[in-house]
Amino acid sequence: xxxxxxxxxxxxxxxxxxxxxxxxxxxxxxxxxxxxxxxxxxxxxxxxxxxxxxxxxxxxxxxxxxxxxxxxxxxxxxxxxxxxxxxxxxxxxxxxxxxxxxxxxxxxxxxxxxxxxxxxxxxxxxxxxxxxxxxxxxxxxxxxxxxxxxxxxxxxxxxxxxxxxxxxxxxxxxxxxxxxxxxxxxxxxxxxxxxxxxxxxxxxxxxxxxxxxxxxxxxxxxxxxxxxxxxxxxxxxxxxxxxxxxxxxxxxxxxxxxxxxxxxxxxxxxxxxxxxxxxxxxxxxxxxxxxxxxxxx
Length: 297
What we know:
Largest sheet: 5 strands, parallel
Helix content: 40-55%
Number of strands: 9
Shape: globular
Number of helices: 11
Radius of gyration: 23 Å
Oligomer: single chain
Structural class: alpha/beta
């Protein structure tokens, strides 16, 4: 039901963006003509979840539509991303996880007739950068020391929902290989619990993982090591790009920009300037959507 409603919502919003054709707004002071009303279209949507007449009261966006970014790792979420997503934000804590998700999403998108480069997978990555591996590890340990473990338990409980009461469990006992899932952030629950089972984590280790990265890939090391991780994921079809999630702002972001980005540029994996166009859509290599009413004509 949730994704059926989401699908209809996306179609309604895209339809509203199309209600004015691209050149409908003339804004001619001399003639006094503001808009060409022959290029105005009513949506007249009647669906299971929404009833919308339209039109929208603003011009069509410069990008046609803003880039549609979606996050979802359940079967329904992947299906929705394959159908409507243009950038898909995902949490993949390991190389194998990333490859499986990437392959599953791309296969579904192809089956729906979508072009390869029009659905981009961008997992989150949490970089902790140091001039040496030891310095990076010390940064992580220092960050971990700032938070009381009781607070971490509360954070982890939010992600795991009612699957278990973390305040009553023996934190140094192993996470069971099977636990009853709940409907609360189901895909993230499964990701965390599956990872804990494979790595044979204790509850304490899982709680720390949730605090450190929220299930995203954490890369701790030198600029060269972090670049290696990112390039490996990109070259082996586990990512089309990354959503960089600095552990601290502004320091963590500055470290990434000043230390990791030059290393990626040296390898030819990061642009030195934006030359493709003026919009996010153009710089991502995504096509500008055709207005449905123009296309119909």
